[in-house]
Each structure stands twice: as C-alpha cells, then as structure tokens.
Amino acid sequence: MKKHLSKWIALVLAIALLLSVNSAMAESGKKTLTIGDSVTFATLEPFQSTSITGVAYNCLYENLASKAATGEVIGYIAKSWEKTGDLTYNVELYDYVYDSAGNHITAKDVEYCYTKMLGVANALYYASCVATGEYTVDLTLKDDTMGGIENPLMTVPIVSQAEYEKSSDFMASNPVSTSHYIVSDYTSGSSISFIKNENYWQKDESLIAPVSRANYDEVKFISILEASQMKIALETGVVDAIENMSSTQVTEFLDGGAKADKFQTVDISSGMTVLINLFLSGVESSAFHDDVNLRKAVAYAIDRNGVAMGATNGLGRACTVFGSDYSGDAPDYYEAEGGWLPYNPTLAKEYLAQSNYVPGTKLRLLAEVNTSRAAQVIETYLNAIGISVDISTPDSAVYHANYNDPNTYDFAICLSGFDYNSTYWYKQYRDVGRGYSRHGWVDPELHAAVANINTVQGHTQENINKVGKMFDERVYGIPLYNQYLYYTTNRALQYTDFNWTVTGYLALWACTTK
Amino acid sequence: MLKYFAKRILWMIPIVICVALLIFSLMRLIPGDPARMLVSRDATEEEYLNKRVELGLDEPFLTQLGKFLTDTFLHFDFGKSYMTKTSISRDIGPRMVRTMELGLLAAAFAMITGILLGITAATHVKKWQDSLCMIIALVGISMPAFWAALLLIMLFSVKLQLLPPSGIGGIQYYILPAISVGLYGTATFARQIRSSMLDVIGSDYVTTARSKGLTEREVIYKHALPNALIPTITIIGGFLGQMFGGSIVIETIFSIPGMGLYLITGINNRDYPVVQTCVILLSIIFCIAMLLVDLAYAMVDPRIKARYASSKVKRNK
Amino acid sequence: MSANEEMIRRLAKDRLAMLGLLIFVAEIIVAVFAPLIAPSDPFAMDFTSMLSAPSSAHLMGCDEMGRDIFSRIIYGTRYSLGLGISVVVVSTIAGTIIGAIVGYFGGVADAVIMRIMDVFQSIPSLLQSVVISVVLGTGFFNTLLALSIHRTVGSARLLRGSIMGMRHMEYLEAADALNCSKLRTILKHVLPNSFTPMIVYATAGIASAIMSASTLSFIGLGIIAPTPEWGAMISSSRNYFIEYPHTVLFPGLAIAITVFALSVLGDGLRDALDPKLKN
Amino acid sequence: MNSKDQSAPFLEVKDLEVFYSAGKQKVQAVNGVSFSLQKGRSLGLVGETGAGKTTIAKAILRILPHASATVKNGQILLNGTNLLSLSEERMRDIRGNEIAMIFQDPMTALNPILRVGNQITEAILHHSSMTKAEAEKHAMEMLEMVGIPAERFGEYPHQFSGGMKQRVVIAIALACNPALLLADEPTTALDVTIQAQVLHMIAGLKEKLGTSMILITHDMGVVASSCDDVAIVYAGQIVEYGTLEQIFDHPSHPYTRGLFNAIPSMNIDQEYLEPIDGLPPDPTHLPEGCYFSPRCKYAAEACKTGNMPVITTADGHLCRCCQYNLVAKDEKK
C-alpha cells in the first residue's frame, strides 16, 4: 500500500506543477502598495462608467482639472479657463503635456475625448467641446446647473487620439495615458498592477495635484468579490488596504477594537456621502397616491435612529434634515431636536386613523439585497402602528427594472451617493420628461422649484428653505440614514496629509509613506 | 469506431443550436432590462431609450435571434459584452482556461482520493478501514460544496494561514477550490470503486490470477483494479456536470475569474451576450467531456471497442 | 406481497439505512410541528442579541438580525425537506408520464422527446436550475419548477430505458396478444416492474434536490432571506462567518445531516430492492 | 485414507478439515479427508455439487478466501513438505509453478481486458527468469500445444469461444510445467463435443508432460475416460476410494451405488432410473455418525453414532461404511 501511495502523491504534485500558471511576483526592494476592491476590473477602457474599475480609475487616467488640498478646483492638464459666453467657457491647456508613450497632448485630443465621452457615459453636463487653437478648446454646457464647469472638467479622461485609435481593443487591456502610473500587468477580472511613470510630464512638484502624486513605486489593485475574503486578505497581509467593509465586520478594526493594534480605520463619509432613502410611489395604484395622512403616518412611525442601528449595527447616522446631514445646503429652519418629522408613534397613529389605509392591506416595499436589513427594520416599526408590509428583495437587475416603474411598489428603499442636497432633490423630484417625477408624483410646482435651486443663481438658502417646506407638506420621500464609508488599512500606511473630504475617495497611492 | 463518434459529434451540432435557441429566448424572458442596468438610476427616459436602441434590444425578437444565430454559428463572433463593450471571445479565453484547470485539478483530486478510499475499503471488507473510508465518503457526499469551501477557508487560510483565501496565481490558489469542488466527486468515486472492486474480487479471473502465484498486490492492482475502474469512468461524466455547475458558486467564493464567475456577473447585470456565450460554451465543453468519457470507456474496454468495430464491419458488407 | 416483506426485512437489517430513516422521520415530525418545537419566532428580531454566540437563551446563537438560529433551522426543515420531497414527487410523476409515453409508443414521439431531453441534458444541472430560477424569480414554487425540470428529464429517461428493456419481454407480448388496451398494459404490467429503479432514483433525488436548493439559495436565487431556508441562512451570514462561525456552522450541519440521512437511506433501499446483494 | 503405497506418494492429504464462517453459522465443507496421489497418476474426485470437492482443491493450492475460510486441521504433503505450514511467500513460488489449477467456467476465468498471450506470459515471467521475448515464444508454443493458432496470441478473451477459452486456461496452467494439475470441473460448462476434445487434449498433455492430476467432476463418464483412481466425496468426506476398475466394477458404498443407478446404462433399457432420494445434508449442522445415513437404504442404528470405520473391500479398495457386508450381499451386477 505504501509504495503505491507515494506513487499517487508524486502524480498529484506533477499535475500541480504542470498547472501553476504564473509564478508569484518577485518582492523587490521597491515600496509597494496593494489595495483590495470589490469591482471586477473587466476593462480599462477610458470611456466607460467608473463602476467597472472603481478607485483604480484615478490611477489610469487624468482630467483637465483636479481638486487642490483646499478643495478648490484647480487646472491640471488645463492651465486655466474663463467664461466667454452664456454657457461656453474657453479652456487653455498646458503645452508640455505628454502621455507615457511620448505623444504630445493637444486641443485636438481633448476635443476627441470629450466628443467620445458624450456618446458613451451618461448624465454629463456639457453639450460640446471644440478645439479653437493649438492648446485652447471651447467647452459649452448643456444648462446652467450648479457645479457648472467644474464637473465636466474633472470627469472626462484625456488620452491621445492617435494612441487610442491605434490600440486594437480601444485600450481595454493596455491603456496609455498621461497618468503618473503606467499599467505594468493586468489580468481581466482579477488584478491591475501599476509602476511609477519615471518621466512624468508634470516636472514641477508644486503643480502636481494631490490625487496625481505617486508616492509608491508599485501599486496593485486586486479584485475580491466576497466580503469575508476581503477581510481575510487584509488580515493575512495579501492586501494593505480595503474600502467599505460591512458594518458587522468593521467594528473590530475601529479604534479600541480587537484588531485596532495592527489596523487602522477612517470614516470618509463626510467626503463620499452614501444616503439610504425611502421613496414613496405617487402613481394611482400606490396606497400613498393623494393620501398625505398615510405618508405622514409612515414618516412619523419610523425611528430613523432605530433603522440606522438595525441596518448597520450602529455604524450609520440618522438623517435629521430632508437629505444628507453632511451636505452643506440643507434647510436650516428645523427647530425640534429630532429635526425633520421626528419619530412620534402616537402622532403617526393619529395620521393613520385619518388616512384611508385599510388595516391588513400589505404595502409593497421594494428593497435590494444590501438594503434588506433596513427594510426588515422598517417593517417592524410600521407593524407597530398597524401597517403591514410585504418586502420584496429581488436581484439587482429586477430591482433596477422595478425601481424605475413606480406601479410595481408602494415605497422603495434606494441607496445612492451624491454631493449636494439640491442636486439630489433635482434628480429625484424633477419632471423626468413626461409630466411627472421619477417616482410618479405629478407636481409641476415642485418640479419647477427643484429645477430652480439646482441652477447657479437659484441656489440660495432662502430658496432651499422654501423647497424644504414644500417637502415637509408633501412627504414624497423619507431620507433614512447616512451609511458610514470606511477605509481600513494596516498600520504601515498613513494618510493624514490627504484631504479625502474634498475628493470623496482616499487616494492611498498619493499619501506620503511613513 | 471513429464513425460512431463522428456521428455523435455531428449530432452535437443541432443540440448546441437548440441550446443556443433555448438560452436566447430564456434571456428575453428574464425580468430586468440590460439597458436599465447601464444607464444610471437617475437617467431620464430618453437616455434609457437611446441605450435600448444602441444595444439593439428594440428590434423584433426574430431579427435579434437571426442576427445572434448567424453571428455565433456562422462567423463565430460572440459579440461584445454590454457592460464592458469588450469582445467576449477575447475575455472568455483565459477564463475558460482557468475553469478547465480548476476542473482538471478537482477531477484529479477526486479520482486519486476516491480510488485510494475505494481500494482500502474493498481490500479490508468488514474491517475498520472499510467503515472509516465509507464514512468519509458519506461525509463527502452530504457536505454542500459552498459550505465546505467556507470551512476550508476558515481552517487553512485564516487559522493556519497556509493557503491564500482567494484570487489566482500559482497552484496554491487552486488547492482549496479544487478540494471543495472535488469533495463530492471523491465520495462518488470511492463508493463506486468499492462496489465494483467487490464484484471484481469475487470473480473467477481474480482467482485464476491468484492461482498463478501472483502477489496479493499484483492481483489487486494488475487484475482487479483495471476491471473495477471501467464502470467508474461513466461516473466521471456525472461528476464533470456537477463540477461545471459547482464552479459557479466556488469561483464566486474564491474570486477566481473563471467561466462560472463570468456567467454569474453576466446574469446579475443581464449581460445577454456574455450569458449566452457562457452557456453555449459550457454546454459544448460538457458534451465533449461526456463524449470523451464514452470514448475512454470504449478505448479501455476491448469488449466495447470490438462491438463498435464489428458494427462497422457489418455495415461494409 | 412476500417480495415486499423480504425487502423490508433486508432493509431493517441495514443499520445505517435505519439511522437514515430515523433522521428522515424525525425531520418530518420537526417540520410538521415546527411552531410547537421552536423556542422562539424565527422572524422575531432582537437587536440587543445580534450575532450573539450560542447561549442558554439561544441554543444556536443569533444571526445578524438577532433572530434565533435554532428556531430558524427548525422552520428551515419545512423548506428544505418540503422542497426536496415535492421536487422528487413532481419530477417522478412528470417523468413517469413522459417516460411511459415515449417508452411504450416509441416512433416519432420517442425521437422528438428524446432530442428535447438531449438538449436539456447537455446543460449541466445546476447551470440549468440557475438560469430557469432567474427567469421564474425567487420563491418556493419557482424554485420547485427550476429544480424539477432536470430531474424530470432524468426520471423520464430512466423509465424509458426500463420500458424499452421490458418491451420485448414475453409477458408484454402476451398482454398484447390478449389485446389489452395500451394504457392498461402500461399501468398494469410495465410500471410495477420498473418501480424499483424509480424508487431508488427518487430517494437519491431528494438528497440532491436539497443540495441544489441550498446552493441556489446561497447565490441569492431559489428561496431567499428572510425565509429561514438553510442555504439562504448561510448566504446571509457568509460575510462574517470568520468572526461568528456559529451562523454558518449550524445551517450547514443541518443540510449535511439531512443529505447524509437520505443518501444512506437511498443506498439501503437500493441494496434491499436490488436482488443482487453486495456484501 | 491411502491406498497401497509402492513408493513415497507424490501428494498426500491427511485428515483435512475446512470450514467457512458466514455470519454466525459455520459451514463444515471438508470433514477429515485423506488420500494420496502417485506421480503421473490422475485422481477423480466425484460427488454432488456442494460436497466440498472444490474446497479440497483450493485448500491444496491455499487460495481459499482468507476472510471466510479456515483450515481447522490436517496436512497436505507435496513430496514430503506440508504446504499448510509454508510461508505465503514460499507458497507463491509453488502456485502456478508446481501446482496449477483450471477452473469450471471458462467464460469468466480469463481477465477480459488483458490480451490472451499476456495472461500466459505473466505466469511464466513470474516463475522463471526468462526474458519477455522467450516467455512470449514459450507462450505461443503452449497455445499451439492446446490447439490454438499462435497468431491469436494478441487477441482478447471475448474473441474466443467457450472451448477455446478453456484451452487458453489450460495453456496458462501448464505454462510452467507444473507437477500437479488441479482441474475443477474443466468441461462442465462446455457442450459435449467440445468436452471430449478438451478431455482428450488434457490426457495427451498429461502423458507428454508427466503431470499428475486431480480431476473434480460430478460426471461419471468424464471420470471413466480420464482418471486412474477415483474418490467418491459426500458431505466433505471420502466415502469410497479405489482404482477406476475397483469402483466401476464393485461399487460398495450405498452412495456410490446410488450414483451408478442414477446413470442410464446403454445396454439395459430401464423404464425408471433410481434417483437417490432426499437431499445432501445441510453443511452447517451435519447429522451424527454416517452423513449418508438419512438417505441410505441400509441405514441401521450403528450408522447413527460414532464415525464410520474404513474397511477394505474384497477387491482391496476402501469404503467408509459399517454396513459393508450387508451392502455387498445384494450386489446387482
């Protein structure tokens, strides 16, 4: 038996060696950084929605403008810009911008990139971009929404047109850009590795924007989809940092937690706000259609702190305003300590009595897998005052389809990120193009008000309060809580000199190492 | 015999086309709309409709079907993924290799451990080795692959920190996934080999072998085992089916970008071309694997090979 | 009836199969009387004891929503066993009908249906269930359908095989000679004799149906949270099974024990029904 | 039980007892068998199925299944050495080399997935130091000897008929020129015409190679055509032992008589054959005294107790029966 056993084991080892695809990367003396992310890195193509490459997108491509440490928008590839017409700006580029293959970036390339991006990405704020000189372009906005010129300047990737058209798969696997980092190794669906671009075009250190600083020689992004695997990878040292650990896992890594000695965690939700909302459906088939009492009953019946506690183990902050507390432009007239429509079950019962809700009818609550805990907590609060709920948590594709058809639900939980309340109200309550808002509310007066405060001149505190009051009467939606967004890294990293509130993400590669 | 297998390969073509038809129509029945997944949640109706036109989803069902069939089967062009707009055939190549490697390793693990368990059980009937091996086999059958994966990760990656918990790289990344997928196979092999070994050990030609004065080991490994292995070849087919299915779950847990993960991401994003390509390729690989199993069965057992040969001879007259 | 007594006597002698039968019956009782047995309501949330380890209050601890895992596992037997048995029942009936028609009448019907079955069998079983389950959506009956299709093809093919084998047997020709109607022949002669392989295939079927159902739930299809299905329970606590292993350990054990019992029972039945006894 | 021994017997079996344990019961297959065999002679072991004939042969070759069979006592002396006391390793040198065995059902006696030639060379290579080529040449000679064209060396067992397969089995057995050939009902599974050829061929080879043989059968015709001595076996005991002529001319044990009466004889046209009534005893609990007594016409009180004496009959062969003189009186012939 033994002679045979050894033969079998030898066979297994032979097969194993035969299959070993690529040997582990040699650990050179250089400073390396490995970041775990839950995106699939399916393609590195410049003109795409950023969810495919996540934070790594900022290592791949640069934009015309960037954010300074102070938060002010500064020119990067563009030297400066000034308003020349009602909606047009003339942007002047630096004339010494080169990509890693040595191509000289000119206005023609910028025009090409902006036109290409228009055909691909969505929800952009500019209408067109035309080259006027060797290093000047005219950028025309779609309308005078808030944030005007800054957004287009900071979202479009800049690559050389010649290089892009030369690449067989449109730079999906071998991007060439002006970035401070060059892609050294890429396995689709698994990992991207960068090395520092030694002859980076911006030689003047003082002009390099915080995000574009390259303080590590090698940076590697690894795709880990399974949340528990992400945590294990951090603990076993496979990765140095991970983003957005789930609330139940992160408690150990917070200060004072069991693992706080070896790891550190920072909450960057002040920069990148993730708001969880309960939107009521306004179509005829919805129970909330012209029944403001029921809407108010539901608003008062839900203790937003309880929901935050239940859904995120206490690692979330209940909304006290109609919108996110972190955003600067919130109505400022709430006097009561609980802020907007504070939790008051008795008042909720009164409103419920006045509403035409028939006890026993089940209100259809639509939620996603990652918001199902919040839905289950809301169900208990509504059951407490006598409203019964039927939760459905379909997979994300079905959720997307149902969420966009208000007839399929009475109310829906939606998780979304955003910067300012005004832009957020505008998106959620504007007229979608057929006389009613996204959730089916027909309210021309509100549509107009929300559109107005989203413009540069309409964005005043007085207008915001006016709109705030309109929401208080209508209660079309109930903002629930802000979920804290964490970055967890091992103690070797430090990032105090990087202002993430400004960029909304933590560019670890740009932080000075210890 | 080649004529028989040629016929079977030819017969595979209509089957694969039917599979393509089936999956194409099933995808159109699936709730949820790819265009809706691509535009942001706050997009306007008009942006959504443009996206539908861009993806060609607004054309009538039959035109889409016609275009799909001609592309796939005439030009062998699987088209572009909705999500990443990259060509699928380029993306799916390395992924198919990874899934096949995982499958090969899982099959090797399952067969080697299965044969070892089966032989020890069969050669020590009614002794403690027999019941021990069969208990291990029963445990192997009853443990769900995903649960086994989680436990293995907990033990080997977290507690002992011997093996990497996820990702791809050298062979050590494939060991835990292969074991979780192969566990079910180990159990089926062990039980099958034990029962066929017991049949074979009782048969006359084993007694003849013993009467020749061969050592017990030679009798078992030279005469009994080869005959016992033949029926086990058929269950390799069943095991491969289960393995292809299982890879969907295991690749998600271990973040191995193989066909399973590509398919599941495709389904979640309603990426029709990706799902269609994965299902078609998986069923082709599965059919070929089953064919190879039958081929192996015929090659190994002269009696069956003769039957094919004779059928061929008869036809020539 | 002596053949059946003989079979039962042989089955009773197989201690492992008896253990399997015992566990199976115990689980059915637990499933039926779940409300009486379960210490607390499986859906009741108690935020104070979120993810608490097994304690006297909660025998198997609590899950991420503070629900008692022990009662959820007890209620879970309804879904897992219920699904397993109903999948087998549905697919055996459907398989028998198709198999009988195809097997006995043969000719065009046989060729067409066999080719359709080839198409279904050329797609791996779990892959098939995943795709169909995505089409139908989640929930008990949709999962039941998704899992039954593959098993129906299997049992139909099995029955067709045994019918084809028996068609040339004398007693069937004798039945034709007495010009009994085709249906009566099938019901009276063919089915009872192909009864044995179907029974063995069915018991093994319950085990693999439970396994596939829990796998489907694990990837978010099939039966999903908040329903206390074992696979879904593992899936919803897979993000923190390292810190709180009890949330994954107990549901997994429940699946393993059920599938173990059914496989052992299936083996016992096969050996008891199959005259060629293996020692 | 040994007949007149001119020289030291080539093979001697003394008081061999073997039983099988199946679950709690003990099957007493062989209950004190003794006989001896001269070099070059062939002994026929005759008896109904289940009488323990095959067990005796397997005991000699020591290939009884370890798990269930146990040799309670007895000796098997081959040229003086007791095979039962040999080490397994030493016994293996004898198996296939000095003692060989042919089995009953040729259809399953050959390994279906090994070429016929290789199954012969395997035995040769194992026991001799020949090179592979020499072994193959010798194997082809063996095939020719058993009447199979050498070209079929590379074919598989399923390409041979029953008779041809039995010839291959014989070729395998005689490949190493064994001193003793144990043939366990070699022709029972074959039809009559093939049976005669195979028996004739075995007899020829026996002469040519001088092999002594123990032929196990329940067919008196086969014994008559191939054996020198005969031992009648009943319920694990030899009830009558003698030369062919002695047994055929003067069957003296009632069971032997019964066997002969059960065969239709060519010259007398009999309406009814006389079957031996009753069934062979249940080996798990054998009757007291003479095992044949329940079915014996001459059974008397004495037969029921103690073990039967072995007496020498008139013409000098042995018979285990206490009513011998009664039986001898009404000898039919």
Number of strands of chain B: 0
- The helicity of chain B comes to over 70%
| Overall mean pLDDT of chain B | 86
Rg estimate of chain D, integer Å: 21 Å
- Strand adjacency order, main sheet of chain D: 6-7-8-3-9-10-12-11
Strand content of chain D: 15-25%
* Oligomerization: heterotetramer
Q: What does the average pLDDT of chain D come to?
A: 83
Helicity of chain D, as a percent range: 25-40%
Instruction: Describe the sheet with the most strands of chain D.
Output: 8 strands, mixed
Give the overall shape of chain D, derived from the CA principal axes.
globular
SSE order of chain D, one letter for each helix or strand? EEEHEEHEHHHHEHEHEEHHHEEH
CATH architecture of the largest domain in chain B: Orthogonal Bundle
What does the secondary structure layout of this molecule look like, with pairings?
The complex is a heterotetramer of chains A (about 525), B (about 325), C (about 280) and D (about 325).
Chain A lengths: L1 H18 L12 E6 L19 H4 L4 E3 L5 E3 L2 E6 L4 E6 L13 H14 L5 E6 L4 E6 L8 H6 L5 H6 L14 E7 L3 E6 L21 E6 L3 H9 L5 E3 L3 H4 L12 E5 L5 E8 L11 H10 L2 H9 L3 E3 L26 H10 L7 E5 L5 H13 L3 E5 L3 H8 L7 E8 L2 H9 L14 H10 L7 H14 L2 E7 L2 E5 L9 H4 L11
Parallel strand pairs in A: 1-10, 1-11, 15-16, 15-17
Antiparallel strand pairs in A: 2-3, 4-5, 5-7, 6-7, 8-9, 9-10, 11-19, 12-19, 13-17, 13-18, 14-18
Chain B lengths: L1 H28 L4 H5 L6 H11 L5 H14 L13 H36 L4 H15 L2 H15 L12 H30 L2 H8 L4 H38 L5 H10 L3 H29 L1 H15 L1
Helix pairs in contact in B: 1-4, 1-12, 5-6, 5-8, 5-10, 6-8, 7-8, 7-10, 8-10, 9-10, 10-11, 10-12, 11-12, 12-13
Chain D lengths: L10 E12 L2 E13 L4 E5 L6 H9 L7 E10 L2 E2 L5 H7 L4 E4 L3 H4 L6 H12 L4 H14 L16 H13 L5 E5 L7 H18 L2 E6 L2 H7 L2 E6 L2 E7 H6 L4 H8 L39 H4 L5 E3 L5 E3 L3 H6 L4
Parallel strand pairs in D: 3-8, 3-9, 6-7, 7-8
Antiparallel strand pairs in D: 1-2, 1-4, 4-5, 9-10, 10-12, 11-12
Question: What does this entry look like structurally?
Answer:
The complex is a heterotetramer of chains A (514), B (317), C (279) and D (333). In chain A, 29% of the residues lie in helices and 20% in strands. The longest helix of chain A has 18 residues, at 2-19. Mean pLDDT of chain A is 83; it is low at 18-27. Chain A has helices spanning 2-19, 57-60, 107-120, 150-155, 161-166, 227-235, 247-250, 292-301, 304-312, 345-354, 372-384, 396-403, 421-429, 444-453, 461-474, 500-503, and strands at 32-37, 65-67, 73-75, 78-83, 88-93, 126-131, 136-141, 181-187, 191-196, 218-223, 241-243, 263-267, 273-280, 316-318, 362-366, 388-392, 411-418, 477-483, 486-490. Chain A has 2 domains: 33-239 and 488-510, 3-Layer(aba) Sandwich (D-Maltodextrin-Binding Protein, domain 2); 273-483, Dipeptide-binding Protein, domain 3 (Roll), CATH 3.10.105. Chain B has 2 domains: 35-77, no CATH class; 92-316, MetI-like (MetI-like fold), CATH 1.10.3720. Helices cover 80% and strands 0% of the residues of chain B. Chain B contains 13 helices and no strands. Chain B starts with a helix and ends with a helix. Chain C is mainly α and 279 residues long. In chain C, α7 (140-167) packs antiparallel against α10 and α8 packs antiparallel against α9. The two termini of chain C are 25 Å apart. The mean pLDDT of chain C is 83. Chain D has helices at 53-61, 88-94, 106-109, 116-127, 132-145, 162-174, 192-209, 220-226, 244-249, 254-261, 301-304, 324-329; strands at 11-22, 25-37, 42-46, 69-78, 81-82, 99-102, 180-184, 212-217, 229-234, 237-243, 310-312, 318-320. In chain D, β4 and β5 form a beta hairpin. Chain D is globular and about 65 Å long. Chains in contact: A-B, A-C, B-C, B-D. Chains A and B meet through α1, α6 and α12 of A and α2, α3, α5, α7 and α10 of B.
